[in-house]
Structure formats: C-alpha cells, structure tokens
C-alpha cells in the first residue's frame, strides 16, 4: 500500500521506522534481529536507506595502490522484498541520484515494481566521500527533482527507450526530503523551499524531514511550507541522542542544532548509558508534543538503537 494512502486512511498519528542495510558480509538475520522487537509497535511502513559506493585505495604487494570501488551496504532492494515477505509491512526504498545512471535507475524501478514495492523516497544523495561537491554520473541526475520526474514518467508508462510503446505504468507513491533547519547547500530557506515546492508540483506526495531536536523548528518549517503553497503531508524525522560524541557528530554530519537545554543535560552525564536515558526522555517529549499536534506520522531513524525507540513508542501508544 502507498504511504500516502496510509496517511489518508488514518485518523491517528502513525509510526514508521528507517533502517540501514547491514554492512556487506552480514546476513538478513541482522535486519530481522533489529526489526523483530519494533514490529510489535505496528509501523505502517519501513524505509530502507540507500548507500552509494565509494572509492578506496588498496595497497598492492609492490607498494603501489589500486583504486577500488566498494559498496559497504548493498541490498536495499532485497531487504525491501524480505521485509514485505517476512512482516507483511510496506517497505519504502530510498532512491538516490548519486552513483546511478538513468538506465540503472530505470532497471532498479522495474525490479522494485516486480517485487511489489509501491513507494520510493527520492533523494539526491550526498557527495561521494572523495568529492567535495556532489557530482552526478555522466548519464545520471543532478537533483532529486530530475530523478523524481523519471519516476513520474515511469508511472505514466514513459520509459527511456522510446520504442517501448504502451509500457506498463508503475504506481510508485513518491516521497521527498525536507530540512527544517535548511539544506546545508541552500543559500537561504526561501530558495530551499522554492525547490521543495517544485518537487511537490512535479509529483511528490509527502515530505519526510531531516532529524531535528527542537520541535519549534519543525512547526515553523511546516508554517513556512504552507505559506509557500506546499500542502502535502510533512512527516517529522526523529532520532534519539545516545552518546556524548553525537553532540558534535550530529551537527557536523546533518547540519542540525542541539538545543542548549539538551546539550547541558547530556554534558552532565557520566556514561553513555546515562546519555541514553536523557536522549530517550527528550525523544519521548518531542514525540508527545508532535503527536498532540496531529502530525501524520512519527518517523524514527532507528539505526543502532532500536531499544530506545521501542521504549519511547511503547509509552506513546
Ligand atoms: P535536492 O532536492 O537535489 O536538493 C539538494 C540541494 O540543491 C538543496 O540545497 C536544494 O535547495 C538545491 N536544489 C534542489 N533542486 C535544485 C535545482 N533544480 N537547481 C538548483 N538547486 C536545487 N542520502 C543517501 O545517500 N541515502 C539515503 O538513503 C538518504 N536518506 C535520506 C532520508 C531523509 C528523510 C533525508 C532528509 C535525507 C536523506 N539522505 C540520504 C540525505 C540526502 O541525500 C542529502 O541531504 C542530499 O544532500 C540532498 O538530498 P535532496 O533529495 O534534498 O536533494
């Protein structure tokens, strides 16, 4: 079922989770171990992130280096199939521009359609680790909107190969990313919102936001979106802080602020176990306030901390 239909058909705030594919070498059981306890919380859908390949240098016996392409977390399409078969819950694969040609994207979409996936979250992806700015593949997409238009085309039966007439029309429901604290490359919030609106006008049906730790920023963002004519559901993305290290890692990696009140409490903690308690309580208060404000879905980035999410959502239900 489509994410947008889950939202339309529910009068209550839904719950969804986001997971990462395991590192290469691990089995699908690591996904089941991660998700098993969370399934009790009846998520409406589960997002599976996509990670582009990276170039690494491997030293050879003669002392020179080989540039090798490695994909550390493959398997997004297979994991979606496994989730749907194992739990009978909708899976939402992330689809990125980075590292893909348009043809590879088309083939991936066909595979997703064949396994019964109705949803995609369309993203640009970040720059490759060895690049300072994002560079698309020679025959790839530069921005999420270009990838989105390709998905919309396929939904209309328009394939890259022009001689395919009467091609099967896929029916992907398309989500996109939003940034309550602005995307780090955007010169200002207004520009960022103009590009967001262009994606909605081109066919995006809902927005999932970057994590944030201050609900005020989310509420203000929703207001700004509405003022700019963006009227699709906006789903808050939420994550618990679980270590002192994250106080500096999260702002650096995701361009988000940690409120002073939260950072002061975390700095007082003696161990990461203490930080987890503070982070869980903060997440619970954030979730309660968002639920009271009738957000369509609470979307949790579960990463390596499913236990915290489990405890928080249990208290919400
Ligand atoms: P875009 O919409 O292309 O926007 C990127 C920047 O360009 C913005 O500053 C925007 O204002 C600007 N812009 C947009 N359109 C145009 C245009 N037409 N012309 C000029 N400028 C434009 N990354 C991954 O690699 N894998 C994942 O699985 C993944 N999942 C994510 C899930 C969520 C919910 C979120 C919020 C992010 C996720 N990301 C993921 C990170 C995301 O790929 C990065 O934040 C990326 O830098 C931007 O992606 P975007 O889709 O917002 O890009």
General description of the model:
The protein is of the alpha/beta class. It has one domain (about 5-315): TIM Barrel (Alpha-Beta Barrel), CATH 3.20.20. Helix content is about 40%, strand content about 20%. The chain contains 11 helices and 10 strands. It has helices spanning about 5-10, 30-40, 75-85, 100-115, 145-155, 190-200, 215-225, 245-255, 260-270, 270-290, 305-315; strands spanning about 15-20, 45-50, 55-60, 65-70, 90-95, 120-125, 175-180, 205-210, 235-240, 295-300. Strands 1-2-5-6-7-8-9-10 form an 8-stranded parallel beta barrel, surrounded by 5 helices. Strands 3-4 form a two-stranded antiparallel sheet. Helix 2 (about 30-40) packs parallel to helix 11 (about 305-315) and helix 9 runs antiparallel to helix 10 (about 270-290). The model has no long low-confidence stretch (mean pLDDT about 95). The protein binds flavin-adenine dinucleotide. Flavin-adenine dinucleotide (FAD) binds next to strand 5, helix 5, helix 6 and strand 8. Flavin-adenine dinucleotide binds near residues 96, 123, 183 and 185.
């Amino acid at each position: 079922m489509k994410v947008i239909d889950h939202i339309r058909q529910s009068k209550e705030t839904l719950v969804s989770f986001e997971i990462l594919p395991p590192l290469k070498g691990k089995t699908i059981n690591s996904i089941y171990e991660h998700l098993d306890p969370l399934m009790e919380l009846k998520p409406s859908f589960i997002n599976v992130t996509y990670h582009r390949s990276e170039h690494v240098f491997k030293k050879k016996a003669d002392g020179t280096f080989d540039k090798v392409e490695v994909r550390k977390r493959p398997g997004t399409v297979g994991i979606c199939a496994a989730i749907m078969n194992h739990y009978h819950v909708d899976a939402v694969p992330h689809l990125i521009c980075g590292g893909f040609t348009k043809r590879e994207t088309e083939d991936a979409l066909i595979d997703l359609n064949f396994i019964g996936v109705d949803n995609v979250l369309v993203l640009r992806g970040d720059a490759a680790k060895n690049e300072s700015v994002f560079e698309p593949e020679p025959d790839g997409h530069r921005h999420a909107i270009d990838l989105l238009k390709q998905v919309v085309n396929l939904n209309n039966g328009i394939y890259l190969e022009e001689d395919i007439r009467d091609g099967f029309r896929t029916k992907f429901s398309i989500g996109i990313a939003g940034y309550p604290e602005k995307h780090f490359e955007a010169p200002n919030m207004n520009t960022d919102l103009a590009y967001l609106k262009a994606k909605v006008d081109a066919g995006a049906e809902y927005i999932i936001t970057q994590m944030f730790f201050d609900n005020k920023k989310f509420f203000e963002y929703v207001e700004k979106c509405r003022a700019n004519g963006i009227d699709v559901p906006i789903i808050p993305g939420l994550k618990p802080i679980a270590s002192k290290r994250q106080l500096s890692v999260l702002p650096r990696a995701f361009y988000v602020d940690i409120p002073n009140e939260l950072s002061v409490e975390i700095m007082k903690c003696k161990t990461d176990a203490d930080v987890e308690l503070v982070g869980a309580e903060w997440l619970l208060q954030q979730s309660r306030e968002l639920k009271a404000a009738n957000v369509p879905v609470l979307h949790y980035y579960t990463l390596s901390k499913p236990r915290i999410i489990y405890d928080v959502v249990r208290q919400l239900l």
